Structure formats: C-alpha cells, structure tokens
C-alpha cells in the first residue's frame, strides 16, 4: 500500500463520515467484497450499538500493509487520479477503517493464504496499531467494532459517543 499524492487526495475528497451502524456495516461488507470474499458473516450485539463483527473469507491483509491498513489516504488500488477512470472496487480500505477508528474501538484479525496463522491487530483512534498478537482464525479478515462496531478482516470498534447514537 502507498500513500496517495496530495493532488489525488484533493480530487477524491474521500473523507468518510460514519453516522450510523448501517454505514459501518456497509463499509466493512464493501471491504470484504473488494477482498474477493464469497462469504461474509455479520453479527450485531444490541443492534450494533455494543458490537459489530464482520467476518469474511477474502484474501486478507498482507502483513507488510498492516501498519497503514486503517490510515487515511493509503491504498493499493490506485497510484494517481488517472487510475480512477479504471477503478472497479467499492472504495478504499484505509478511508473506511480510518473513519471507523475515529468513532469506535477496532480490532482486525487477518490472514492471507501465504500466512501460517492469523494476526489480531488493535487499532487506535487514528488507525495506528496499538498491539498485535497471533490468532487462530482462518484466511480472510475479521473486523470487530466495540461499543458499536466490530470488523473481522478480522476487526473491532468502540461504542459511539452518546451524541452520535
């Protein structure tokens, strides 16, 4: 994954705003589909206000991309604004995950076909990795959002502040 040039970022105006449980679930499902998932499982606790969990069997996130997987303006899908003309995906993982990190505690567990085991990442409000540990989950991703959101590409979110519920 690479950081997009400033000129491309300005053209995209891709500042995602998470306003509801629905918007979180939509973004996580789109990430799963973009990762080639043929199976996506969504679980909500208390209608998604306590926890959102999305698990898929997609390609997973490469370990080398993990440090920037939820950082705004990072993507592996395009290099410049010219690439937008041929884009065939739903969006950019870093934009969606970065926005979700702003409103929830996020855990992401992921494994690619090349990995021997999955890794669970705990992300901070800026999308940076706070901690990581091995996990037993299979290939794909699992996102978990606590206090409202959870994503399993393997991931998790914190609850929304009362004013946003």
From TrEMBL:
GO cellular component terms, A-Z: mismatch repair complex; nucleus
GO-annotated biological processes: mismatch repair
GO MF: ATP hydrolysis activity; ATP-dependent DNA damage sensor activity
Pfam family, one: HATPase_c_3
InterPro entries: DNA_mismatch_repair_CS, HATPase_C_sf, MutL/Mlh/Pms-like
Gene3D superfamilies from the UniProt entry: Histidine kinase-like ATPase, C-terminal domain
Family note: Belongs to the DNA mismatch repair MutL/HexB family.
UniProt-recorded name of the protein: PMS1 isoform 11
Biological source species: Pan troglodytes (Chimpanzee)
């Amino acid at each position: 994954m690479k950081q997009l040039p400033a000129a491309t970022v300005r053209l995209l105006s891709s500042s995602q705003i998470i306003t509801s449980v629905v918007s979180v679930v939509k973004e996580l499902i789109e990430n799963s589909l973009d990762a080639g998932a043929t199976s996506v499982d969504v679980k909500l606790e208390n209608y998604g206000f306590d926890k959102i969990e999305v698990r898929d069997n997609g390609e997973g996130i490469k370990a080398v991309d993990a440090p920037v997987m939820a950082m705004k303006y990072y993507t592996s899908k395009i290099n410049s604004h010219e690439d937008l003309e041929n884009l065939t995906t739903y969006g950019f993982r870093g934009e969606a995950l970065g926005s979700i990190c702003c409103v929830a505690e996020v855990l992401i567990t992921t494994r690619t076909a090349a990995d021997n085991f999955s890794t669970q990442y705990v992300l901070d409000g800026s999308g940076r990795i706070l901690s990581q540990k091995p996990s037993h989950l299979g290939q794909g991703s699992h996102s978990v959002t606590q206090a409202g959101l959870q994503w399993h590409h393997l991931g998790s979110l914190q609850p929304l502040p009362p004013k946003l519920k």
